[in-house]
Q: What sequence folds into this?
């Protein structure tokens, strides 16, 4: 700018300022009462964090509880939604690559082993054992035994959430017609299935042996008979006496007893749900996620009478011991919350997942439609009043078993799916099917360095 132009501009600005100063003062007005506004939350102690959650009800729930957490603590949490089909690959690429995109994430129990092996996760003991970080009333015992699936070499790498199981579903009206009690043992279960079997109208019970889901249905029988997949030293034991007894019982329901629909080799969650809804089976073990559908007469009108559901549920059968008590073990799946090694704000992330899975956060998670793994939240009166099945879930949690979380879990489950399918369809005897599976799983374990 030339000097002459600069002087002209400055002169013009001075004139404007002088004119403004000569204006009369504004006429005073009556003092207005202050407008009441909601006080903003106090400034948080920690920086903003980003938490990854896959699309669906878990994401929606996380958004709701994160807002409550912010109101209470002032700490800001951004919930980033990721499509389900891309979720695992996205997290794996980010975590193992040391990325800092996320400070925490919602994960399935079979994902952490490979991440821990790659040093891609923070161990939570660092925070749990620091009195300046961990809340004094935080009690990790409320997660037992679910927390065990997230322990590696004695360290905790995730806090559990969304731990579920399956129920024994039964037609109370049909049992009463036959003068039968609700089965408490596997022997009673078989006796009831025989008595209620009236094919093709109604089968006594139902199982699933779909190629990609068989293990997730059979595991309730495996664990229920006292079987396991691996022992505490990762030796394969599924082909021991208990495992073979469980698979024999399972396969015989089709091959020998014929108390299940003939096409159960194609059945998984959806197919089992459908035959229960249609009244085609009198009993069946089905995931608790089906509860709302099966007990809602608008969704399952064929198994309702006078506006009330005919299908009721209880915990799966067990084995009666010599003293008359019943020993129970059951299965389930487990999700949780982790902190990646690349997190920019790991302490802030820890405080959020500690609160989220603690009694208060877990209660909110439940009231919003989630399934907490905190037994205190599951048995909370307000939670039980809204979701009655949580009272039973809290009772089941201590004897719920899970598929082992290892770097070979996916291949191990595939191997077991094939073995179960072979036994159910009769192409292999249960002992042979499990022996072959055990040999393959042992090979996988050896190759992975276990």
A:
């Amino acid at each position: 700018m030339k000097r002459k132009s600069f002087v002209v501009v400055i002169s013009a600005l001075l004139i404007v300022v002088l004119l403004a100063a000569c204006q009369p003062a504004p006429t005073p007005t009556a003092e207005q009462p202050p407008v009441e506004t909601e006080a903003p939350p106090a400034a948080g102690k920690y920086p903003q964090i980003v938490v990854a959650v896959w699309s669906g009800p878990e994401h929606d729930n996380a958004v709701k509880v994160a807002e409550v957490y912010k109101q209470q603590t002032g700490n800001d949490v951004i919930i980033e939604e990721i499509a389900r089909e891309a979720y695992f690959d996205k997290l794996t690429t980010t975590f193992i690559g040391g990325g800092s995109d996320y400070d925490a994430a919602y994960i399935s129990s079979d994902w952490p082993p490979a991440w821990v092996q790659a040093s891609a996760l923070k161990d939570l003991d660092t925070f749990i054992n620091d009195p300046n970080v961990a809340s004094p009333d935080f009690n990790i015992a409320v997660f037992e035994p679910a927390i065990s699936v997230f322990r590696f070499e004695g360290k905790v790498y995730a806090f559990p959430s969304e731990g579920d199981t399956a129920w024994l579903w039964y037609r109370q009206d049909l049992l009463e017609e036959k003068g039968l009690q609700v089965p408490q043992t596997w022997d009673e279960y078989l006796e009831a299935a025989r008595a209620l079997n009236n094919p093709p109208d109604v089968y006594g019970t139902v199982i699933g042996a779909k190629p990609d889901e068989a293990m997730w249905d059979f595991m309730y029988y495996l664990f229920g008979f006292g079987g396991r997949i691996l022992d505490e030293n990762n030796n394969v034991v599924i082909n021991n006496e208990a495992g073979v007894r469980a698979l024999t019982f399972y396969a015989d329901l089709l091959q020998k007893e014929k108390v299940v629909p003939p096409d159960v080799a194609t059945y998984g969650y959806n197919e089992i749900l459908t035959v229960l809804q249609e009244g085609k089976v009198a009993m069946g073990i089905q995931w608790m996620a089906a509860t709302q559908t099966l007990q809602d007469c608008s969704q399952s009108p064929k198994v309702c009478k006078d506006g009330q559901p005919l299908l009721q549920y209880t915990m799966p059968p067990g084995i009666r011991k010599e003293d008359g008590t019943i020993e129970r073990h059951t299965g389930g799946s487990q999700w949780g919350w982790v902190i990646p090694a690349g997190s920019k704000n790991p302490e802030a992330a820890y405080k959020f997942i500690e609160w989220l899975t603690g009694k208060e956060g877990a209660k909110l998670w439940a009231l919003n439609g989630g399934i907490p793994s905190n037994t205190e939240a599951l048995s909370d009166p307000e939670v039980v009043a809204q979701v009655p099945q949580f009272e039973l879930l809290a009772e089941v949690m201590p004897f719920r078993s899970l598929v082992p979380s290892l770097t070979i879990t996916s291949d191990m489950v595939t191997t077991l799916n094939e073995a179960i399918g072979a036994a159910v369809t009769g192409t292999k005897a249960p002992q042979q099917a499990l022996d072959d599976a055990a040999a393959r799983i042992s090979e996988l374990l050896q190759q992975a360095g276990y």
